[in-house]
Write a structure and sequence with these properties.
Helix content: over 70%
Structural class: mainly alpha
Strand content: under 5%
Distance between the termini: 63 Å
Shape: elongated
Radius of gyration: 19 Å
Largest sheet: none
């Protein structure tokens, strides 16, 4: 086993950073003025925050010793996180856009409207 303080830091720092991603996203979402901006903020926080949680969980799993199964599970979780967060954010954004929301006037362009 290694130094317990270092191990706790290797587990705690990614977990706290992941939590911080969600906290910052929550504050930013409350300040956003339209649904599409909120979805964009949420997708970034979900992707990065969940990956940091996976790193913390994998390092915690390593405290019991290296196992190939643990590494494979972490890699599958990384891949699934990328796919799920991407598909979910695209689906939510399309649904929000089809509801014909009012976009923030500061939005520079709207590629999906067909208006130049």
């Amino acid at each position: 086993m290694g130094n317990p303080v270092v191990i706790d830091l290797l587990i705690g720092v990614p977990a706290l950073l992941g939590s911080l991603c969600f906290l910052v996203a929550t504050v930013a979402m409350n300040r956003a003025r339209d649904a599409l901006t909120r979805i964009n903020i949420l997708s970034v926080a979900t992707g990065l925050g969940m990956m940091l949680f996976i790193v913390a969980a994998y390092v915690n799993d390593l405290t019991g010793g290296f196992r190939w199964l643990g590494l494979i599970m972490a890699l599958v979780a990384f891949g699934a996180t990328v796919v799920v967060t991407s598909v979910a954010s695209i689906t939510l954004a399309r649904a929000a856009y089809r509801a014909d929301p009012q976009l923030d006037p500061r939005t520079a362009y709207d590629d999906l409207s067909g208006v130049q």
